[in-house]
UniProtKB/TrEMBL annotation, chains A, B:
<feature type="binding site">
    <location>
        <position position="26"/>
    </location>
    <ligand>
        <name>Mg(2+) 3</name>
    </ligand>
</feature>
<dbReference type="InterPro" id="IPR016188">
    <property type="entry name" value="PurM-like_N"/>
</dbReference>
<dbReference type="InterPro" id="IPR036676">
    <property type="entry name" value="PurM-like_C_sf"/>
</dbReference>
<dbReference type="Pfam" id="PF02769">
    <property type="entry name" value="AIRS_C"/>
</dbReference>
<dbReference type="Pfam" id="PF00586">
    <property type="entry name" value="AIRS"/>
</dbReference>
<feature type="binding site">
    <location>
        <position position="243"/>
    </location>
    <ligand>
        <name>substrate</name>
    </ligand>
</feature>
<feature type="binding site">
    <location>
        <position position="49"/>
    </location>
    <ligand>
        <name>substrate</name>
    </ligand>
</feature>
<comment type="similarity">
    <text>Belongs to the thiamine-monophosphate kinase family.</text>
</comment>
<feature type="binding site">
    <location>
        <position position="70"/>
    </location>
    <ligand>
        <name>Mg(2+) 2</name>
    </ligand>
</feature>
<dbReference type="InterPro" id="IPR036921">
    <property type="entry name" value="PurM-like_N_sf"/>
</dbReference>
<comment type="function">
    <text>Catalyzes the ATP-dependent phosphorylation of thiamine-monophosphate (TMP) to form thiamine-pyrophosphate (TPP), the active form of vitamin B1.</text>
</comment>
<dbReference type="InterPro" id="IPR006283">
    <property type="entry name" value="ThiL-like"/>
</dbReference>
<dbReference type="InterPro" id="IPR010918">
    <property type="entry name" value="PurM-like_C_dom"/>
</dbReference>
<feature type="binding site">
    <location>
        <position position="113"/>
    </location>
    <ligand>
        <name>Mg(2+) 1</name>
    </ligand>
</feature>
<keyword id="KW-0547">Nucleotide-binding</keyword>
<dbReference type="GO" id="GO:0009030">
    <property type="term" value="F:thiamine-phosphate kinase activity"/>
</dbReference>
<keyword id="KW-0067">ATP-binding</keyword>
Length: 291, 291
């Protein structure tokens, strides 16, 4: 078990609250007043989650977008965000990018804290949402026979990252400025048997949903959407790269999604591997492993 | 204007939401589901907010306690917390202290995120509360003639810090394990004209409340409670040291608090200095200045 997972297990053990599924980078879901709150908190660290020298406006955008993506996977409507900010270089660029993201997604900044520190900067964002349907979709509701769907291509962020890293002319927007699938999430939430966003890689996130649901996903790689610029030789890699923030979800076999999506596989009774691709167990790491 | 305040001003400008008073380390307050949510997010950084080598169990306790103290100042009942955690040494001690604090204050851990990073560790906590009265007390409601009250002594955390730093036998618990005044806050909230917790120092926090309210507080230093161990020569210093997390509040002149508290002064029409002590403008820094 990784150090992070061991810590999460220890944290869960001390606080066995039903909403604490939020600890494994899922959202917390809890009743408040007559409605349901959806909460998530994600961090970004310099040198880990962004490249040294990267425009802080893009970092701010991504911090907002990745947290809102967690809300999208619950079909939640964003209510606001709280920011934890380490002061540093290019704070004005950060504020500019934060403002653009908040405006783009119609979300107010409600509060937060700022600190000074030496060393790599650390940013945290708490996003607060309002559930739009009940029950709120979880990762654990997929049943054998359900079909597995994906709202859009995987691999664009990988290409964007490489373009940015190498100073190439390729389009890096998919990596720098992802779009949370908020509308899609709200449309899908009432009918999805399980849903999550693809943040760490299609295969590893599919494996997590399969394990939470007690099924195995059989994925047909020919059905997975990729960006046109991706060479066919890199499709396997693209299925293991994260940061695309598309929604991965299951629907009953006879249902079709109310929003654009690609059927990429089917849920089967659990096998030893939570994911099989084109009938075989995928080799190696499935995606980004938190350490 | 400090770099931090400049940033906060910039953030406020881009998100003029009524709840965004949370940006100046106050809480965000917003309606949700027929009730009122109270939200705060505070960070702690190694080497800034805790001593290198300090027991991580105490750091965890303080992270929880300081955030709950912000809720206490709103009279809010804690609902849960989300943790942003940088992995490092002594994580097991952190988890132990976190568990003790959550149990002591009856608050569940709802979710969060963990990251790996080099350099000084950064921790963030979002605390979520439910308002118990309406309106929720702010910092801006003090009126000339109101009396200024404090729930308990200031200076104990300063002595505790020194004992811990110097490896002395003195009691460091007041610095290591502060108690948020949750019960007191709930009792006071319906009647306080303004309220906040004393986190950065009595004088500076009083000045902030005075400025927010458009008054000046005339403080009688003889009426300020101090711990018995504090030498009389250090009382001025104790009024400028933070971390005691007592509640500072105003009541109409004819009202008495329903909980133990000390009347330490009175609100007057605004003068050039937001705080005067024993009739004079205090010299030098009033307390901990965020930079």
């Amino acid at each position: 078990m990784s150090k992070e997972l061991a810590l999460i297990e220890a944290l869960r053990a001390l606080a066995p609250h039903p909403a604490a599924r939020g600890l494994a980078d899922d959202c917390a879901v809890l009743p408040f007043g007559g409605e349901t709150l959806v909460l998530t908190h994600d961090m970004m660290v310099e040198g880990v989650h962004w490249l040294p020298g990267q425009d802080m406006a893009d970092v701010a955008w991504k911090l907002v977008a990745t947290n809102l993506s967690d809300l999208a996977a619950k079909g939640a409507e964003p209510v606001g965000v709280l920011l934890g900010f380490t002061l540093g270089e290019e704070d004005a660029r950060f504020v500019a990018g934060l403002g653009e993201a908040l405006q783009a997604f119609g979300v107010p900044l409600l509060g937060g804290d700022t600190v000074s520190a030496n060393g790599p900067r650390s940013l945290g964002l708490t996003a607060l949402g309002r559930a739009t349907c009940s029950p709120v979709p979880s990762r654990s509701g997929s049943r054998p026979g359900d079909r597995l769907w994906l709202t859009g291509p995987v691999g664009a962020a990988m290409l964007g990252f490489e373009a940015l890293r190498d100073g190439m002319t390729g389009d890096s927007a998919a990596f720098r400025r992802p779009t949370p699938r908020l509308e899609e999430g709200r449309a899908l939430a009432p009918m999805a048997t399980a849903m999550m966003d693809v943040s760490d890689g299609l295969l590893i996130d599919a494996a997590r949903m399969a394990q939470a649901s007690g099924v195995t996903f059989a994925i047909d790689s020919e059905a997975v959407p990729f960006p046109p610029a991706l060479p066919a030789s890199r499709r396997d890699e693209a299925m293991r790269w994260g940061d695309d923030y598309e929604l991965l979800f299951t629907l009953p076999a006879d249902a079709n999604p109310p929003t654009a999506a690609h059927c990429i596989g089917v849920a089967r009774a659990a096998m030893p591997s939570p994911v099989i691709v084109d009938g075989a167990v995928p080799h190696g790491n499935l995606g980004y492993m938190h350490d």
